[in-house]
Every structure is written in structure tokens, then in C-alpha cells.
Amino acid sequence: MNIPMRTYLVTQGDRSRGRGTGSIVRAAIEGGVDIVQMREKHTSARERYELGKELRALTREADIPFVVNDRVDIAAAVDADGVHLGDDDLPVSVARDHLGEEAIIGRSVSTPEAASEAERAGADYLGVGAVFATDTKDVNEGEAEIGTETIAEIAETVDIPIVGIGGINADNATEVVNAGAAGVAVVTTITDADDPAAATQQLRQAVENGRTTV
Amino acid sequence: MNIPMRTYLVTQGDRSRGRGTGSIVRAAIEGGVDIVQMREKHTSARERYELGKELRALTREADIPFVVNDRVDIAAAVDADGVHLGDDDLPVSVARDHLGEEAIIGRSVSTPEAASEAERAGADYLGVGAVFATDTKDVNEGEAEIGTETIAEIAETVDIPIVGIGGINADNATEVVNAGAAGVAVVTTITDADDPAAATQQLRQAVENGRTTV
Ligand code: NI
């Protein structure tokens, strides 16, 4: 499966300066984002279902993949392309059984061991972080900074693509890709930007300046 | 669909005095519980998936229905009989599409209007509350006490069975059933009891003392 993910947006409505997540996603698409994940940790399932339908329509129109964090049922209900799962979520194998072979299933990991395990379990790609220390809640608070060395280690360990996440912006994205990541995932670098479209474009340029593996 | 629900247990591990939810469910089955819902609001999806498999095995052995709160995907993954949904969860119609005609789909409501709407949407039964004021977290904090009058009103309004929830115990369960409920749903009356099996049996007796509609 060749999933485009040089620039990967993870949504977070309450980090979007009151702008709707739909408008952030529109702007990111305008700026050339490759893939969108709806996260929205602090909203109800019902709200995520409604937002998911909107984001599915926008991403379908733009012909880019759309995945849902955690909830396999919401992903199925809004006809998303797949899910992104963490340690606390359903196992990759359960999501695969539920969504089928064609679904995109991503998994968050931070060690080579967890990366190998997720690959064996059938993950299509890995989100790896937190790459850099962050106060922007891209990742869970208190999550350790793993650095680009671990990106390199994990990229060596698995055959599936990995995206770095955590504290990544246009200034350091090239470094992440040069370490072996297929791309970079961001929350606030886009959602909290003055101009989310321009921020996406700058991030994309920084990734393209690196040695992309896609 | 004839769903047995004179005594309906809603699990809550952190209101079970440190006893595992599996052991509470075993005791409730021993005491004659009719149906079990796994709620467990404060645990991760992964934990609910693991617990759900355990509760599914126990309820299957006892040949009683097992439903999962909120998460349609976890319900499907553990082969539960259905789901119980509230205002914040996926719509009944989405759960029905996902789980199929045979699934048991319950819906929480507190007004006759919401009850009618849920029935039209295809709910198989309704959880109605909070019947009595409660400090036991059977229902959401701050939820209004609706009393047995509303139970009677809703029982008049819909053709699907309803269970009362909120502050119900062996002392007042008969009154709830006499108002028109098919049964009573409880959390702590069983989970926090000295003897959960005996508590279930007493609750069951109180329901049978009333005019059951099942
Ligand atoms: Ni399904």
C-alpha cells in the first residue's frame, strides 16, 4: 500500500483558535496536505461522527486519504479510509478484521520493539514520537522526546512507512525526513497557524527538501 | 424482540470495591440477573475490549444477553448482542446499520419526546432515568430526577420495553415496575453491595412483586 504522507494533519478543534476543524482541513488541503486524521480527543462520539462526515466529504473531494483516531466504528460509519490506533485503543488485528484488507491502519509507537510488533500485527504505517519536546499537545503530555535517532532506528527496523510526530514544524521537518521518515505529522503547526494553508505549504516544502522515502 | 430485562446490571469497575467486574458479573448471574451492560466509563478501549471478551464468555455460558455501552466497534469485536447508546453516542440508525437487525440496541432517554424518537429510530428498548435522585453515579451527575410519573408517561408513549435507572434498589424497584417499566437497571445496588449475588436476588424479587410487563 502506497499511502501518501509527506504532510500528515492531525486535527484538534480545541487547538484551532476557534476556527472550525472543517475550515482548517480545507486550508490544509489548499496547502497540499497528503492525509488527514480526525483526532478531536475532547468531543463526544456523536460530534466526531458529524465532523467525520464533513471531513470525509472534504477529503474525498480532494482525493486524499482520511483516517479516524481510535474509533473503528466512527471510521466505518463515515466511510473513512481507516483508523489510527494507540496503545489504549483496539488492537490492530481487531481493526483489520472489522475494516478489511483495504483499510489504512496506522499505529502510534515510540520504540523499535513496538514498531516491529505493530508491523507484524498488520499496521500499514507507524506514527513515531514524540520526536521533539513539545508543549503543543501534539502528543500525550509527559511523553518522552525520542529524537531523530529513534526515527532512524525504527526506519531501519520496519518495512512500512513511518511518520514522525511531536514538535515538528517547517524548521525541523527536513531533519526528520532525512532520518528516514516518509513524512511528518503535525497538529498545531497547522491548526494553530496564522495561515494554516501557508503553514502546510511550508511544511511540505521542508519535507521535500529532505530525502523522502515515498 | 423479547429481551429479558427485569434485572439489568450496568457494570462500573471503579464502583465495585476493588472486586473485578468479572466477579461482580458472576455473582449477578448467580443471583439471577437477566442482562448485563458493560459501561466502564473510565477505562481505555483496549481495557474494555479485554473485559468485554471476559464478560461475553460469562454471559454466554449463562445464556443471557450482553451489551456494550457506547462503543459499537467493541460490541462487534467481542461478539456482544448489542449496544446501549446515549445522546453523546453514535445514532441508533448507525449502530443498526453496523450491527444488523438481530442486534439489541438500547437508548437512554428521559422524556416522552426522546422516547418516541428513539423508538422511531429503531431502538429495541429504552433506559429511562434518573428515576430517583442518586449520589451513586448510576446516571450522570446533575441529571434530573424524573420520578415514576415519567416512567408511566413513557411506558404509555412507546411500544418497546423500558427499564428504569437511577437510584433504584430492592426498596423501590416494585414501584418502578408498577409504573410501567419492564425492569430496573442498576449499577451500585449490585456492584457496591456486600453480597452482589444476594443483592441481585433481592432486586429480582422486588421486580417480581410488581406488575411486570415482560
Ligand atoms: Ni462492522
UniProtKB/TrEMBL annotation, chains A, B:
<feature type="domain" description="Thiamine phosphate synthase/TenI">
    <location>
        <begin position="8"/>
        <end position="190"/>
    </location>
</feature>
<dbReference type="GO" id="GO:0000287">
    <property type="term" value="F:magnesium ion binding"/>
</dbReference>
<feature type="binding site">
    <location>
        <position position="167"/>
    </location>
    <ligand>
        <name>2-[(2R,5Z)-2-carboxy-4-methylthiazol-5(2H)-ylidene]ethyl phosphate</name>
    </ligand>
</feature>
<dbReference type="InterPro" id="IPR013785">
    <property type="entry name" value="Aldolase_TIM"/>
</dbReference>
<keyword id="KW-0460">Magnesium</keyword>
<dbReference type="GO" id="GO:0009229">
    <property type="term" value="P:thiamine diphosphate biosynthetic process"/>
</dbReference>
<feature type="binding site">
    <location>
        <position position="70"/>
    </location>
    <ligand>
        <name>Mg(2+)</name>
    </ligand>
</feature>
<keyword id="KW-0808">Transferase</keyword>
<feature type="binding site">
    <location>
        <position position="69"/>
    </location>
    <ligand>
        <name>4-amino-2-methyl-5-(diphosphooxymethyl)pyrimidine</name>
    </ligand>
</feature>
<keyword id="KW-0614">Plasmid</keyword>
<feature type="binding site">
    <location>
        <position position="108"/>
    </location>
    <ligand>
        <name>4-amino-2-methyl-5-(diphosphooxymethyl)pyrimidine</name>
    </ligand>
</feature>
<dbReference type="GO" id="GO:0009228">
    <property type="term" value="P:thiamine biosynthetic process"/>
</dbReference>
<feature type="binding site">
    <location>
        <begin position="187"/>
        <end position="188"/>
    </location>
    <ligand>
        <name>2-[(2R,5Z)-2-carboxy-4-methylthiazol-5(2H)-ylidene]ethyl phosphate</name>
    </ligand>
</feature>
<feature type="binding site">
    <location>
        <begin position="134"/>
        <end position="136"/>
    </location>
    <ligand>
        <name>2-[(2R,5Z)-2-carboxy-4-methylthiazol-5(2H)-ylidene]ethyl phosphate</name>
    </ligand>
</feature>
<comment type="pathway">
    <text>Cofactor biosynthesis; thiamine diphosphate biosynthesis; thiamine phosphate from 4-amino-2-methyl-5-diphosphomethylpyrimidine and 4-methyl-5-(2-phosphoethyl)-thiazole: step 1/1.</text>
</comment>
<dbReference type="GO" id="GO:0004789">
    <property type="term" value="F:thiamine-phosphate diphosphorylase activity"/>
</dbReference>
<keyword id="KW-0479">Metal-binding</keyword>
<dbReference type="InterPro" id="IPR036206">
    <property type="entry name" value="ThiamineP_synth_sf"/>
</dbReference>
<comment type="function">
    <text>Condenses 4-methyl-5-(beta-hydroxyethyl)thiazole monophosphate (THZ-P) and 2-methyl-4-amino-5-hydroxymethyl pyrimidine pyrophosphate (HMP-PP) to form thiamine monophosphate (TMP).</text>
</comment>
<keyword id="KW-0784">Thiamine biosynthesis</keyword>
<dbReference type="InterPro" id="IPR034291">
    <property type="entry name" value="TMP_synthase"/>
</dbReference>
<feature type="binding site">
    <location>
        <begin position="37"/>
        <end position="41"/>
    </location>
    <ligand>
        <name>4-amino-2-methyl-5-(diphosphooxymethyl)pyrimidine</name>
    </ligand>
</feature>
<protein>
    <recommendedName>
        <fullName>Thiamine-phosphate synthase</fullName>
        <ecNumber>2.5.1.3</ecNumber>
    </recommendedName>
</protein>
<dbReference type="Pfam" id="PF02581">
    <property type="entry name" value="TMP-TENI"/>
</dbReference>
<dbReference type="GO" id="GO:0005737">
    <property type="term" value="C:cytoplasm"/>
</dbReference>
<feature type="binding site">
    <location>
        <position position="137"/>
    </location>
    <ligand>
        <name>4-amino-2-methyl-5-(diphosphooxymethyl)pyrimidine</name>
    </ligand>
</feature>
<dbReference type="InterPro" id="IPR022998">
    <property type="entry name" value="ThiamineP_synth_TenI"/>
</dbReference>
<comment type="similarity">
    <text>Belongs to the thiamine-phosphate synthase family.</text>
</comment>
<feature type="binding site">
    <location>
        <position position="89"/>
    </location>
    <ligand>
        <name>Mg(2+)</name>
    </ligand>
</feature>
